[in-house]
C-alpha cells in the first residue's frame, strides 16, 4: 500500500478495535458481516468505485455507505464501514482488501475471546497443508471458472462438523474470494492468528514426525534467535531424508540431509 492507504488502513483498524467491545458474539458478527459487505463490493463495481472515490468528500462517501448498508448490518459493522469509506485510499482495491483484513481480525478476536484462538490457528495451518499436499483439491478450489458457490459447498463438505465455526467462516471467505494461492492464503491466516497472540510462526518441514519434546526444544532455540515466542507448525516431508528445514518469514534454516547434499554439490561445481 502507498502512504495514504496505509494511514487509512490504520484508522480503520482503530475503528474496529473501538467497535469490538462486549461479547465475542459482537466480534463474530462484525467479521461475518464485513465479509458480506466485501462480497457486495466485489459484485458491484460502481458502488466499489464510488465508496473509494477521493474526488468526493469522505463525509459523502460515508453517507452513501449508510444508505446502502444501514439497517442491513449491525451498528458495530456500520461504524467500522463508515470510518473506512471516509478515508482517502490510494486504490479502490486497498479499501476492499482492508475490509477483508478487518473481517479476519474481528473473527480471530472472537476466537480469542472465547478461548479458541489456538485451535483456529492450528486448523488453518493444517488445512493449508492438506490443500498444498492434495493437487486435485487445490486445483478444484483454485479453478477460476468454477462458481464461488461450488467452492463454498466443497469446503463446507470438508470442514462442517470437523473444525471451529470461525475456521469454517474464514475458509469459506478464502475460497470464494481467491486472490492468491489457496494454500498460501491459509498460511497467511495462520500467521495472522499467531500475530494476534504476539507470536512468530515457524513453518517446519521435517523428515520424520517430531516428538513434543523436540518441538519444545526447537521453539526454545528459535525463541532465543528471534527474541519472541515462536509457534512451531510441522509438516512431515520424507524427501528431506533426515533433519529439517525451518522457514521464519523470509529466513530459511536448512538442516536437512538433502540440503547438505545440495550445498556439497554446489561446492564441487
TrEMBL record:
It is a peripheral membrane protein. PROSITE patterns: ATPASE_DELTA (PS00389). One of its GO terms (cellular component) is plasma membrane. It is found in: Cell membrane; Membrane. Signal peptide: none annotated. GO terms for molecular function: proton-transporting ATP synthase activity, rotational mechanism. Keywords: ATP synthesis, Cell membrane, CF(1), Hydrogen ion transport, Ion transport, Membrane, Transport. PANTHER family: ATP SYNTHASE DELTA CHAIN (PTHR11910). Belongs to the ATPase delta chain family. This protein is part of the stalk that links CF(0) to CF(1). It either transmits conformational changes from CF(0) to CF(1) or is implicated in proton conduction. This is ATP synthase subunit delta. It comes from Nocardia colli. The lineage of its organism: Bacteria, Bacillati, Actinomycetota, Actinomycetes, Mycobacteriales. The gene is atpH.
